[in-house]
Specification:
single chain, mainly alpha
């Protein structure tokens, strides 16, 4: 499992991963529900959709919209087992450990926090994240 600083540095070099950002609807959802509730959703999504050794519809299990965690999963390379192996060095084909699940949630939290902080900096605008934001 790669350190999150290393993962985020690599993600920052990916044109595809950098393009993700929370839209106003997802940002409003995050603010209305609060960080802890949204992260509880993240834990459940990870446990149900990503943690099994052979996730149902792996590679297609994470929608591209509909919840801030889904956007964060695509931005952080935690959307499927293939991306998890590529970006986070967590191998596919076996169930995720509790520590690996928490690693994924921490990556999602870091990205969501950066999105929230950027919105605070300039309200009303959508931003891309950068590796320097936490």
């Amino acid at each position: 499992m790669r350190e999150l600083d290393e993962v985020f540095a690599a993600l920052a070099r990916s044109d595809f991963r950098r393009r993700f950002r929370l839209g106003s609807r997802d940002a409003d959802y995050l603010r209305a529900r609060g960080r802890e509730i949204v992260l509880s959703h993240a834990r459940r999504f990870v446990m149900e959709r990503l943690a099994p050794a052979q996730p149902f519809r792996d590679g297609e299990q994470t929608p591209m919209r509909g919840h801030p965690v889904f956007i964060a999963q695509h931005a952080t390379g935690t959307c499927c087992r293939t991306c998890l192996a590529k970006w986070h060095a967590i191998p596919a084909g076996r169930a995720l450990t509790e520590a690996e699940q928490e690693h994924v949630v921490q990556a999602l939290a870091r990205w969501l926090d950066a999105q929230d902080a950027m919105r605070d900096a300039q309200p009303g605008l959508s931003f891309q994240w950068s590796v320097s934001e936490r």
